[in-house]
Amino acid sequence: MIEMYRSKNCGELRISDVEQEVVLSGWVQSNRDFGGMTFIDLRDRYGITQVVFNSDDNEKLSEGARKLGREFVIKISGTVRERSNKNPNRPTGEVEIEVKEMEILNASKVPPFTIENETDGGEDLRMKYRYLDIRRNPLKEKLMFRSKLAIETRKYLDNQGFIEIETPVLIKSTPEGARDFVVPSRMNPGQFYALPQSPQTFKQILMVAGMDKYFQIVKCFRDEDLRADRQPEFTQIDCEMAFVTQEDILNTFEDLTKELFKGLKGIDLPDFPRITYDEAMKKYGSDKPDLRFGMEFIELNEDMQGNGFGVFDNAEFVVGIIAEGIAGSYSNKQMKELTEWVQRPQIGSKGLVYVKYNEDGSIKSTIGKFYSDNDLNTLKEKIGAQNGDVLFILCGETEKTRKQLNELRLEMARRMGLMTKGDFKPLWVVDFPLLEWDEESNRFHAMHHPFTSPKKQDQEKMMKGEHETMKGLKADAYDLVINGSEIGGGSIRIHDRELQSKNFDLLGFSKEEAEEQFGFLLGAFEYGAPPHGGIAFGFDRLCAVMNGESSIRDFIAFPKNNQGRDMMIDCPATISEEQQNELSLKSTFVGSNE
Amino acid sequence: MIEMYRSKNCGELRISDVEQEVVLSGWVQSNRDFGGMTFIDLRDRYGITQVVFNSDDNEKLSEGARKLGREFVIKISGTVRERSNKNPNRPTGEVEIEVKEMEILNASKVPPFTIENETDGGEDLRMKYRYLDIRRNPLKEKLMFRSKLAIETRKYLDNQGFIEIETPVLIKSTPEGARDFVVPSRMNPGQFYALPQSPQTFKQILMVAGMDKYFQIVKCFRDEDLRADRQPEFTQIDCEMAFVTQEDILNTFEDLTKELFKGLKGIDLPDFPRITYDEAMKKYGSDKPDLRFGMEFIELNEDMQGNGFGVFDNAEFVVGIIAEGIAGSYSNKQMKELTEWVQRPQIGSKGLVYVKYNEDGSIKSTIGKFYSDNDLNTLKEKIGAQNGDVLFILCGETEKTRKQLNELRLEMARRMGLMTKGDFKPLWVVDFPLLEWDEESNRFHAMHHPFTSPKKQDQEKMMKGEHETMKGLKADAYDLVINGSEIGGGSIRIHDRELQSKNFDLLGFSKEEAEEQFGFLLGAFEYGAPPHGGIAFGFDRLCAVMNGESSIRDFIAFPKNNQGRDMMIDCPATISEEQQNELSLKSTFVGSNE
User: Class for domain B140-275+426-569, per CATH?
Assistant: First the structure.
């Protein structure tokens, strides 16, 4: 007889399999002892099957079964029987296995938390025992979703003629942008590789190389201080195309996104609206607006200034949103709490003005002294508010106020339950500025990255390089936004050496720095670089957004915590002096590494 | 009108497209001027199309065309016409485009080598201008093959229920095995990550986590002194399965291999023979024999000793191979040269004995003094040699002599043209020893790796741990070999904490070292680890072997040279002192980095 661990898995037996002899292996999910009968739920990746030991048939076997603890690994053989008390909530719920033989493949200590959909384990414990956490359905399913999403992405891009090309992980450090992780080279002492923050220059080189359509699902790395939902290593769907306009790219990747939603979620997405960066900022105060709900900004300078209310009269910008139907449910106390919320340093507003249009037609506002009910009813008409709505108003410096109102808009949506799970509202934000002025460092930064092309009509202006006009330069740059998350972003690239040099120049690179860091790309542009552009999707984020989850962490098999540590394998860790010597390195850290 | 770079690509137009108006973009492959007519071969990833400028129709356009240099990037629009002189060697060879408009999208300097199938560029130049080299068909096709191979691999494994799971790139250094690349942690000063040499422990953890069937096409890293065909970063098809025997794994991955050969090469491979490690060593002196040809080893102690030839009589081992049909073509001089070849230090044989069985029935040998023609004819009969064959004999210490004869066997096959391109002879080598004794370090090494399970029948012996018996322990370890290359290797793993601890112990780990490096795995084994095993395929190597190529380098888009340098981007490179300080690091290298 051939040695065999299973003839079936724990998820596939049905009523039609009754009387079959089967072999199953798996983990003991639960063990219930009813005197003569012992019922074990046997679990594997595919499901749970009930297996039964009858002490009348085999007392010794039954005794063994009673001793099985949670998470023991066992192999059983027996006969499929129809269950008397069926479990309609489980695909295998109509059958059970009458066990004839049982072998313990491995014992288990009592796990430090329960292996259930809702576990009692805290975050740290679950990170340390990640292998137990992954046994839980929610994590298992997230990892399986991720795998499926990658497969479907690849199928789509392959069908569209994209070639997956692996770009190197050991590359050169380019201090522009985020911080690089570096890797000392033993064979080239004193020198370092860097891990890529993205394969940007390589994918452009591949376009110069004539590969025409490139993609890669690829790990990228950023040595940044980690916020709650950032990881030092993350995954991108990275794409580039030659001989394309922005239109070609948006269409290709809108179609990919639709296919993925259709294939993985069964959802038909309508065509994605496109709005300009300027419009997004004006309407939502954000370049990644959540369109599951309205609450578009209403600019109120004209309406609200000149009534003697100094706060408004002296403000550069007065702007509001209408929160529909909440007038009745927001008490004075709640309004006060909301005011304090916008005044928190993270938001930084000086105060919150509201106008409550009550259901009964009465008005309650914080500015009644300066605006009569008549004034406020005229406004109500004009902005389309209804009885029962609340108008919130912020004011101050334009850009800051927009950002504050964006925060309030999102917070109100959260409180009002408007961020509907299962509702997906994608859009393209286009026409980003090429450069943004950084007050702190007193120089321009690339809004997207230094390889982004200005719009054709702005190229002449850019080559002239007059400082005042630079802020107005628009780029062929675009973001794909879904439900307030930036899922992807890209641009048409510069493919002309002169224009690229000019851009480096504007970004504060000296000729030498540009040559040292990107000389190979500038050089490549001299040998027949085609027009090209591309996009990159945050793959971890896409997984999370498609499942209506806010955190990417559980879509990553082995994530790191906010200190960049892998709690399971306990790394990073010290290395031996011998290893350091081989690398011509010395750690200057004098603290304790206990 | 929408801006558009092309309505068709340069590979798709056929005679049925005649009279169509088309837009094409691409590179100028060649420019031939025949007075009034200018013919340009326009190239993109998909092919080459001839485009024609007629000065009678448009003198100015034609003048522009005459000035186009090689590798200029242009866009043309025009009408598809039937060619008068057709080119049957090109899919588009029946048509040409009569150009109406032309735009130069980018100029090109004269490339430093020709963009042809056979180029005049040297290795270093081609590495530096990799983007030009990739424009050449042979490289382009290799990269496309690689992409297709990855897609097909994923499709197969996905269909078999494997889940692709990304394991982390920033892990912990485990100095056992090859040298790690390390990555200093800024947030955890004095500590380092390491880049994975393989995801071995993570994939085992995923089996403990119940994922059942895992795979990943994944970058791995080894900081080794690079031989001609090694790369510091390389790609594996990495797989692991739970509740399986060796048989299950061999069948699954034999089937994968067959599918890949069928899908990508149109070749039906027969079932793969399986031979034990011992048998492979005995028959071929190698654990990765090339089976495209015979020349199996013939052990000759019994036949050749005792005739007074001291060299044989005093040797532990006398062994030969029959090279068929070469007696007539190997002169004395060539035999002498071959003798010198086996005496080179890389081979290290003391000498080479041969017996030439000439076509005419006469015999010429180097040992005629000790063996009569009668003796040698009896031997001929026994070993099945024919007139025209040559018997080569080596002798000495058994293991060394086998290795030397393996080299000679391969060399003879090379000289005799037996390494037929397009002929594929896969096999499984099984039953590897668990441990190998290393004379130099005076300790055992893991033949496969420290997680490999001894065969069931050897586990008791192993737990006893008597030194003399350890060399004889066999493992459930296996290699997939094709045409003399190890394509894949794997094993059934230990899933028992005690057995794993014992293995670490035998391999010279102290309890503390084992705990520090692999404590998480030993810990995981206590919470219900299932029986499991896996395999990893060298993906770069698989690409090369499937195409009958000996080098992996051109299947990698951006390979590094033997000094671990990327010649195109010029890395590794120095990093700033500021970067080093942030990482609490100091380079101790005092040489020059010019």
Answer: alpha beta
Domain ranges of chain B: 15-106, 140-275+426-569, 293-415
Closest CA to A131 of B258, B168, B207: B207
What spatial distance separates the first Cα and last Cα of chain B, rounded to whole Å?
A: 54
Q: Which positions in chain B touch A252 (Cβ < 8 Å)? A: none
Residue A471 amino acid letter: K
Fold of B15-106: OB fold (Dihydrolipoamide Acetyltransferase, E2P) (2.40.50)
Q: How far is B136 from chain A (nearest CA, A)?
A: 9
CA distances from A403 to A346, A397, B89, B431 (A): 11, 10, 63, 67
Mutation to test the B interface, candidates A558, A577, A592, most B Cβ within 10 Å: A558
Which amino acid would we find at residue A150?
Answer: A
Q: Is B361 exposed, middle or buried (0-12, 13-18, 19+ CB in 10 A)?
A: exposed
Q: Which of B104, B183, B570 is the best mutation test for A, with the most CBs of A within 10 A?
A: B183
Across the strands, what pairs with A490? A478, A535
B233 contacts on A by Cβ (under 8 Å): 168-170
DSSP reduced 3-state for A153: helix
Token pair in block for residue B464: 């006893």
The CATH number of A293-415 is which of 2.40.50.140, 3.20.20.60, 3.40.50.150, 3.30.1360.30? 3.30.1360.30
Within 8 A of B109 by CB-CB distance, chain A residues are 526-527
DSSP string, B443-478: EEEESS-TTBPBPHHHHHHHHHT-HHHHTT-BBSEE
ipTM for the complex? 0.95
Quickly list DSSP for A367-430: TTTTS-HHHHHHHHHHHT--TT-EEEEEEESHHHHHHHHHHHHHHHHHHTT-S-TT---EEEEE
**Structure tokens belonging to residue B262:** 């069928």
Contact A383, A375 (CB under 8 A): no
Helices (H), B37-90: 59-66
Strand, helix or coil for residue B546: helix
Contact B569 A520 (CB under 8 A): yes
Three-class SS state of B403: helix
Distance CA A163, CA A568 (A): 36
Reading chain B (594 residues) residue by residue, the pLDDT tens digits are: 457 999 999 999 999 999 999 999 999 999 999 988 999 999 999 999 999 999 998 999 999 999 999 999 999 999 999 999 999 999 999 999 999 999 999 999 999 999 999 999 899 999 999 999 999 999 999 999 999 999 999 999 999 999 999 999 999 998 767 899 999 999 999 999 999 999 999 999 999 999 999 999 999 999 988 776 789 999 999 999 999 999 999 999 999 999 999 999 999 999 999 999 999 999 999 999 999 999 999 999 999 999 999 999 999 999 999 999 999 999 999 999 999 999 999 999 999 999 999 999 999 999 999 999 999 999 999 999 999 999 999 999 999 999 999 999 999 999 999 999 999 999 999 999 999 988 888 889 999 899 999 999 999 999 988 888 888 999 999 999 999 999 999 999 999 999 999 999 999 999 999 999 999 999 999 999 999 999 999 999 999 999 999 999 999 999 999 999 999 999 999 998 888 998 988 888 876 554
Say how far apart CA A223 and CA B579 lie, in whole Å. Answer: 12
Question: Residue A192: its chain B contacts at CB < 8 A?
Answer: 572-575
Whether omega before A289 lies within 30 degrees of 0, making that bond cis, reads no
**Whole-angstrom distance, CA of residue B565 vs CA of residue A359:** 73
Strand duo B163-164 + B213-221: pairing = parallel
What pTM did the predictor assign? Answer: 0.96
